[in-house]
Amino acid sequence: MLQMEFAMFAWVLLASPILGSSMAPICHGFGGIGDGCAAAKPGDSGKSSGISLGDTTLAVKVSVLGCFSKPCWLQNIRVGVDDSNSVASLAKVGVYLSDGTLVASSQARDVPTSLPDHQWLAFAFRGHDKELRTTSEQDYVWLVVNTENSVKLTYENADSGDEATRTVSELFAGAFVAVRIWDTEPGRRQWAGHFRNLRVQMDLGDVSILPGTLPLILESPHGGRITEGWPTRVTGVLDSDRNTDLFTEELWSELGARCGRTPVAVIFRVARKGIDANRATGSGTHTRGGELCADQSNSQCCCDLASASDEEVAMDLNDVYHSLLSSEVAGANGALLVPIHGTGRDRVELGVRLSASDLNQGAGLAPPSLADHDSDSSLRALGNATYMIWGTESFGSHLKNNRPSMEVIPSSKLLCPDPNLCSASSYTSIFNGGYNLKIHITNTQPGVQVEMPQVMRGFWSSPPAPEAAAVKQVGAALASFLNLHYQESCQTHVNFGLACGSHGQAVSGTCMCEDGYEGSSCGDCAEGYLLVTGQCMRLVVLGPPPGVTEKYGSAFATTSSGRPYLYTRKFSTDLTDCGTGCQPLDMSVRIRCDDNQCHSDLDSSSYTLGAALFDAAGHKMCNGTAARSAQAATDWWLQIPLASCPLLQNGNQDHVAVYLALWTSKLIKIRWEQEPALSARSRGLQYKTADYYQDPSAQSFEHLIDAVPPAQLPSWRDLSCESPSHCGTQDSCDCISGCTCRSWSGNFYGMMATLSMQPA
Ligand SMILES: *[C@@H]1O[C@H](CO)[C@@H](O)[C@H](O)[C@H]1NC(C)=O
Ligand SMILES: *[C@@H]1O[C@H](CO)[C@@H](O)[C@H](O)[C@H]1NC(C)=O
To answer: Is 384 in the pocket of ligand 1 (CB under 6 A)?
Structure first.
């Protein structure tokens, strides 16, 4: 019975001349309110409310009409909520297809505790992936609801158990599972001998109307994404203005947050290749009304398609779109109409119905004036053209203030497109606004078209998303404009809602970071700065120059000395960045870990690393130690803090030598820089034999800087690999087939080490 009612109601809608298989937003569901939604039947006991639920998903089966040959756009779901709720709770909704797959779920939102009688609570679906495809004319979906706490929802009688709301216990956090066959779920809502059906409804259609009361109507005719079922037009521009649909949705929310109430947004969901909704309704050369397309809208009409029947369907939908947009404009009493479009040019072009030659002519006057064009301006309802288009209170000027790096034309900073007159202009032409702006503008109805450059729309983003800063910048500019010309009191602070962390300040919709920080929320260290104890510090880093060749180094237990090593490295330092001096902060050594165990010889026992810094004369300046446990990650820098070091100064020398020394309490593998400069070799890899032969575990840097005659340097050699653990992990080394392992015969290597210093 209920299904039949749906079908009958839908038949009436489908038979109406404007519908066909193209869709205005249509309500699907149950509960008696909204076009296309089934009403409670006579004889029902009426609204029965007060069913508590929590940690339960409820599902209602709803027939879907009009989405079988062409997909529909999923817009929102409403749930009947009882006025007697006593607990605020989060709730969310979703949609399952008849085959059991979850196709969409909403963000969680609050169910308020206090509501008028039997309130509808709406959950909006937003984003790029809200296309709903069903498989046949008889198909249906399941609308599902879950709440975190007990919330009272509104029910009415259902004719049978089959029509009744299904129930499944599942926690709010885990709802909804990806696949669920609701047809076979046993739970049914029932009490007092009656089966009950949840009041829940869904809007589907090819046009989205986001409601609002601000004196502002956002319009997006070229951002549609539905292509299936729509043949490609044979003439005209086919590419959609990418992400203008999403930009419009987010701008709608942004203005809601700034102004306390939202604008209206009208968004066309069919891709431009199928219908150009910024054109007069017509095909070939003529409009439906018999006028020439050439006279109407950029020489074209909406729907030049190969087949006459496709054309009829497309023209019907274009008419639906335009009648919905017209009724929003008519009902809004002079609200600002803002069509949102995209341009391939790297600037914002504002269409105010003034041509390039109009703007050039006015800019050439002394003083510049648009007085000759007042009657053509699309903003004439709000003021004269010179003031509304070039003034510092114009929309273009507000936008330029909010995004100073972007070229915005026309604005007080850029009056006209001709670069000979207006030198900041990058292009000689300008788009002055399209058909939908033209047909709605009157002496009492203002509008301005916004052509958004790719960067602001997030043209290359994946998944598709507009640039967040651009949404805030355009939102702030519109807020300023509404405050001035419509006496609104929107928040114009451009950074509303922008998080810049503790090292940034929001300016012009982007985070301006303190010195040393960068990133969208100023959380990263800028170039030349390093993170030291949670702060980004300006550091001079002495170490291997970029691109230096590395060798995977080893410290072998079986080298000729048979001892753990103490290594030194001479740095010929360039301290020119240090100004009056640099405070050495730490020494970093690069360690290579080549398997889960961090080498068979770097066992899991913890160890100590010591480092010291010596000056050119051989005096130890400072030292430090770091306790380490074995690390599984491969290839890391090991940092050893150096406390209380004196400032290093350039003095009058071009280069100051410092020596880094390192010791370890067990064998580790470190990386070597191949072939350090000749001057560094005599200090490369040296150790003081006498000190360490006495007690290898009592490591120290003392006397380290003493020159070691080359003859006493370690006499490492190339050796045959005896087992994989002896392999020096040279590229393409295959120990099993008997390659040569790393040794140090004839070559001197330096540690891969850096010294970071903070300028005083
Ligand atoms: C244009 O409008 C502004 C603001 O209302 C006003 O100050 C200015 O005098 C007007 N200019 C002309 C030429 O009417
Ligand atoms: C620095 O070296 C001296 C002498 O070897 C030692 O006593 C001291 O503990 C070391 N300091 C640190 C921080 O390792």
So the answer is: yes
Q: Is residue 339 part of a domain?
A: no
Q: Ligand 1 centroid vs 385 CA: distance in angstroms?
A: 9
How many whole angstroms separate alpha carbon 721 and alpha carbon 733? 10
Sequence-ordered strand ranges (E) for 413-487? 449-452
Q: Which of 478, 357, 493 is nearest to 422 (CA)?
A: 357
User: Which residue, of 177, 205, 233, is where some domain finishes?
Assistant: 205
What residue's CA is closest to ligand 1, atom 6?
A: 387
* Three-class secondary structure of residue 469 per DSSP: helix
Q: How far is CA 45 from the centre of its chain?
A: 49
Q: Are residues 523 and 666 in the same domain?
A: no
pLDDT tens for residues 259-268? 999 999 999 9
> If you search the block for the tokens 């070691």, which residue do you land on?
708
Q: Are residues 701 and 564 in the same domain?
A: yes
- Ligand nearest to C-alpha 640: 2
**Structural domains counted in the chain:** 3
pLDDT (average), residues 7-28: 46
Same domain, 584 and 619: yes
pLDDT tens digits, one per residue of 630-662: 776 677 778 888 888 888 776 545 456 677 777
> 0.90 exceeded by the pTM?
no
Q: Mind listing the pLDDT tens digit for each residue in 299-312? A: 789 999 999 999 99
Q: 529 or 202: which carries more pLDDT confidence?
A: 202
Between 180 and 740, the more confident residue is 180
- Indicate if ligand 2 lies below 6 Å from the C-beta of 699: no
Q: Determine the distance separating the centroid of ligand 1 and the alpha carbon of 373, expressed in angstroms.
A: 14
Which residue matches tokens 């360490």? 692
Instruction: Determine the structural domain holding residue 647 and report its residue range.
Output: 538-759
Q: What is the pLDDT of residues 454-463, one digit of tens each?
A: 999 999 988 9
Tokens of 715: 């006499």
Amino acid at 630: A
pLDDT number for residue 317 = 94
Q: Does the C-beta of 208 come closer than 6 Å to ligand 2?
A: no
- Nearest Cα to Cα of residue 35 among 69, 2, 12: 12
Give dist(CA 112, CA 69) in Å, integer.
39
Strands (E), 31-69: 48-53, 56-63
